[in-house]
Amino acid sequence: MSRITFNKDRSIECEEIFFAPTLVQSTNIPEIMGCGMSDNGPVMKVDTDAMGRTNVPGVYLAGDASGSPFQLISAASSGATAAAAIQLDLLDEEWNAAGSI
């Protein structure tokens, strides 16, 4: 790194650069749906429980959207966890409906 160019007419010389990117959701759909959001320093994420459930019934998140580490293997793992939560919640709903008959 020897120079930063801000625009065609302005640049500065440098030897190093430090920056802290702010990671934000690429869509506002979770906010529109009413999902809670949290600002965890440089990461803006949708609030979920450990299983990927949001505060909106029937809405689950996994991967980067849920704040898991930004790695493919972590995203896949959180997806499997959210899928398990969906299955458990559907079974619970079915059992509760069957019990009220």
Q: Which key phrases capture this entry?
A:
single chain, alpha+beta, 17% strand
Instruction: Tell me the number of strands.
Output: 4
Order of helices and strands: EEHEEH
* Spatial order of strands in the largest sheet: 1-2
List the uncertain runs. none
- What portion of residues is helical? 25-40%
Radius of gyration: 21 Å
Portion of residues in beta strands equals: 15-25%
Terminal-residue CA separation? 71 Å
Task: Write down the overall mean pLDDT.
Answer: 85
Which structural class best describes the helix and strand composition? alpha+beta
Description:
This protein has 101 residues and is an alpha+beta fold. Helices cover 33% and strands 17% of the residues. The protein has two helices and four strands. It has helices at 29-33, 72-99, and strands spanning 3-7, 10-13, 37-40, 43-46. The chain has a two-stranded antiparallel ribbon with strand order 1-2. Strands 3-4 form a two-stranded antiparallel ribbon. The mean pLDDT is 85.
Write a brief structural summary.
The chain is an alpha+beta fold and 101 residues long. The protein is built from two helices and four strands; from the N terminus they run ββαββα. The protein has a two-stranded antiparallel sheet with strand order 1-2.
